């Protein structure tokens, strides 16, 4: 089972040290995202804009549900995937990251990056093992639960793939599983923490982090996920 065919979205998040000047210049930032020559987005990509005064600005597309949010702490980009995972992933890794680091963050002096993360969102068929897990945890008091929601994480030091020496960088991998009436939604949230924060986004080796996240998705996350569905067929 090729789980990548079940990916329905990618969410890229960049967290930086809180900057109270971001809301003040958010209008200029939005104009750059929509109208600059360097932008990979534009007004067709994000035809709608919303904003909470002094807090957060959001660009979004009501047809695809794609969005970009920026506030005093984060920039978050949500992209739809429709059987074109490799194309969308490479577009984010190459075009989007290049624009963020060399244009947006550089021009508007957004500094001190604390975390880079990417979420791989999946929509899957139902799986009886989720109900079995709830029965086991509740000692059969709950045999057929509704709206199951499970989340767990695993923190890992950066050792074999250390990009910066003499610092306390680490990775966190979060597994989210939610059972709804029509399907199971399963996410891998792969996060890389920079400790101490890196001043310039161009020094955050983001492409390497995304490649490592994709490798973990394919080699680890899918190995575990496929086992759940293969055993379901037996």
Descriptive account of the structure:
- The protein has one domain.
- It is about 30% helix and about 35% strand.
- The protein has 4 helices and 9 strands.
- Strands 2-3-4-5-1-6-9-8-7 form a 9-stranded antiparallel beta sheet, with helices on one face.
Strand proportion, as a percent range, falls in 25-35%
Radius of gyration: 19 Å
**What is the string of SSEs from the N terminus onward?**
EHEEEEHEHEEEH
Portion in helices: 25-40%
Mean pLDDT: 88
Strand order of the largest sheet: 2-3-4-5-1-6-9-8-7
How many DSSP-defined strands?
A: 9
Give the class from helix and strand content and strand pairing: alpha+beta
Counting structural domains, the number is 1
Which ranges are low-confidence, i.e. pLDDT below 50, for 5 or more consecutive residues? none
Biggest pleated-sheet summary: 9 strands, antiparallel
Distance between the termini: 15 Å
The DSSP helix count reads 4
Shape: globular
Helix and strand arrangement:
Layout: E1 7-16, H1 22-35, E2 48-52, E3 56-60, E4 67-70, E5 74-80, H2 85-107, E6 113-124, H3 128-137, E7 149-157, E8 170-179, E9 184-198, H4 206-233
Antiparallel strand pairs: 1-5, 1-6, 2-3, 3-4, 4-5, 6-9, 7-8, 8-9
